[in-house]
Amino acid sequence: MGSAPSLDERHYVRGGATQTAVKILVVGHFAVGKTTLIGSISEIEPLSTEETMTQAAESVDDLKGVRGKTTTTVAMDFGRLTISDRVVLYLFGTPGQQRFVQMWEDMARGALGALVLVDPQRLADSFPVIDLIEHYGLDYAIAVNHFDGTPLRDEPALREALDLLDDTPVVTCDARDEKSSAAALTTLVRYLLDRTR
User: Which family does it belong to (predicted)?
Assistant: First the structure.
């Protein structure tokens, strides 16, 4: 039986520069757009564990305020985004339902930070997610996923409603749009870099 191939620096070098892999969580409540955001921005075919929702799930998952939701993440989403010759982001999307909370401990291990997606029409649904992120000691940025037809909320009102610290970044994004999703992640990465200096 042959030995497994060893990983050497050639696997981590692009153009002579060593790359740093950064684990980022993409989190949020049920049906907020986590899978969509990772799919819009991943440079590889994203791993998605979307399954068709059943009648049994409809009795557990609150579909109030959710239009056209027919699938749900049952394990995680995964994508990759190279943001420079030196930094590559590994994006892990978590399921938003309370019944999947037991997965969070493993998902949070080794993560540098989290992008918390929120729906401006369902802000209260974000409280348990933010509590979990804070419980695991992760720095985070808030990305308000602006859905079609929803009014924009001003940042001070959002900060107050979500009880955020003054330095927590808040951005508006459209999870369907690659540039918008990239801008939200860039805001998070800049914030994380500032926190480590």
Answer: Belongs to the GPN-loop GTPase family.
